[in-house]
């Protein structure tokens, strides 16, 4: 991945924070993502004492929701401003907010977390590095753990000309190629969005899948 693929995140957050306007962050909902909230209420496993990581956590609402459900949460973002903003918004939070690059994560994070949650990170990065993005996310999950992925999807093999680049189901299947097993897949439609089709997939990491095979 080149620096150009991710360098634009920090200036966007910095400008928005300077103006006190989270509305400048296109993906900032300022509340828990509905796809995560629904999963927590309907399908989440016992959370007490279990670890979770939120990939590219943005302004922290999803991380806080997981912490409120009892997970011990680590949340990271490549933008230092985003992390500072999270800490400002949630000064008494139990979440461990950290600045980190998905492609240069701390070695001790590999195969560590009981739950890995990602919403729209993959689609924000170029199609040509998509397999590597998926591999980095999958490698965060501990054997026996869960990866929960929510993203926009597209039917055409041709991606849009600019970000975001919704995934095809074939691209998403790279998680399965890495050994993760689909527990459930839920499809959603937002007719008011130019990216109307969305999917949430819950994967299980087999106990036998570990560092040797991954």
TrEMBL record:
Entry-linked SUPFAM superfamilies: S-adenosyl-L-methionine-dependent methyltransferases (SSF53335)
Ranges that cross the membrane: none
Keywords carried by this UniProt record: Methyltransferase, Phosphoprotein, S-adenosyl-L-methionine, Transferase
Highest taxon, organism lineage: Bacteria
GO molecular function: S-adenosylmethionine-dependent methyltransferase activity
A Pfam family per the record: TPMT
GO biological process terms on file: methylation
InterPro entries per the UniProt record, alphabetical: SAM-dependent_MTases_sf (IPR029063), TPMT (IPR008854)
Alphabetical list of Gene3D superfamilies matching this protein: Vaccinia Virus protein VP39 (3.40.50.150)
Protein name: Class I SAM-dependent methyltransferase
Organism for this UniProt entry: Vasconcelosia minhoensis LEGE 07310
